[in-house]
Design goal:
Elements lengths: L1 H19 L19 E4 L4 H14 L7 E16 L5 E16 L4 E15 L4 H29 L7
Parallel strand pairs: 1-2
Antiparallel strand pairs: 2-3, 3-4
Helix pairs in contact: 2-3
Length: 164
């Protein structure tokens, strides 16, 4: 019982401290990232990885083909073998991805934010050929979600000061 009251007390004190410090939600009415919400068009390569990263970015920011901002994203993927058996077959792969991005303001035709994010995922190749291909596709899809979320984080953090 004491532990429950203690947790409740800590939660309430954290809530009060957060409201007293002037915290503003990023996508709230006065948040810096609200200018990007439903005001952004994503441009990515016409490949599966480009579609997946653009899909995740549009899920997070909304889709607006006539928005003020254009986000150009270029993902690059590399596959590398990690673990080999005594027979010489590779049992585990690592998929490494890098995504370069640039946020362009269409009204002033300038790049207002740009950067590069990177991460990796892995998959096992111990099953059949079909299972290995499915695992690789899944690892690539997970990687594109990770990279897109990192881009969102970078843009949200640096969004204050962007023109509305």
């Amino acid at each position: 019982m004491w532990l429950h009251r203690r947790r409740m007390l800590l939660a309430l004190s954290a809530l009060l401290a957060g409201s007293a410090c002037g915290f503003t939600p990023a996508f709230g009415p006065e948040g810096g990232a609200s200018v990007l919400q439903d005001n952004l068009r994503v441009v990515a390569p016409d490949r599966r990885d480009g579609f997946l990263i653009a899909q995740r970015l549009e899920d997070r920011f909304g889709r607006n083909d006539g928005g003020r901002y254009v986000l150009t994203v270029t993902p690059t993927i590399q596959r590398q073998g990690l673990a080999t058996s005594v027979e010489g077959t590779t049992n585990r792969f690592q998929v490494t991805g890098v995504a370069d991005f640039a946020l362009r303001d269409t009204q002033s035709d300038t790049v207002v934010r740009q950067g590069r994010v990177s991460d990796f995922t892995g998959f096992s190749a111990t099953g059949s050929t079909v299972a290995t291909l499915a695992a690789e596709r899944d690892a690539t899809a997970r990687l594109m979600v990770i990279l897109a979320d990192q881009i969102v984080d970078r843009l949200v953090i640096s969004a204050s000061g962007l023109p509305a």
